[in-house]
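Sharing a chain and its predicted structure for anyone who wants a worked example. Both blocks are below, sequence first, tokens second.
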Amino acid sequence: MKNIKISAVKIITVCLFIAWAVVSVAAMNMGVSAGVTKEYIPFDVKVRKSNFIKSGWTIWLEEGRKGYSHSVSKNLNLGDKTIYSKAIFKTGIIKKPKNGFMIQGISKNNHPITVPQTTYVHYVHDVEATAYDPSPESNGLKWAGITALGWRTRYGIAAVDPKVISLRSLIYVDGYGFAWCGDTGGAIKGKKIDLCYNTTEEAFRWGRKKVKVYVLGTKPQSFYANKKKK
């Protein structure tokens, strides 16, 4: 019985020593530090509806961007791990969020030309827009029904000045819709475009208008900016 008591005392002593050693080592590895966490602020998206775009198709006029603030915390560290953290204070807004702006299609009709389902505005031009049709009266006998690139002249084709808008660009024009820039014209110089309709009557109804032309791409501008940084 006496031997058992001595063994128990030894065991307790050893356990206390181990506990003391663990606490001592932990205390040596413990430290206090301040941490800064970036907290993001979501952005809103403003939507404009268009009957000239098929339902499910969208054009991002402006990309949204998150804002952020900073949260400062006091951390208790054990080695390289944080075992406890308490927020001390939050800063004000460091960067305000920027709202996004998109055009959303609501039409049930298919587009007369093939276009990507989601596009992003790369450039905007204020131009004077006229209209033409595939007939010889609009194009001359040589170019009747065919564009400068050899495409079939039809609705969804636009004549542009390549010095302003590159040929083969995809554009969107309010009141007209999507168009591929596949044609040129002797009178189409500078900030002018010519939008193709299928009939002379439709082209005549368009007349001459001041419009905004949105030059589109399949990736946002931020994609190319981030790629350059890398």
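Comments welcome. The chain is about 20% helix and 45% strand.
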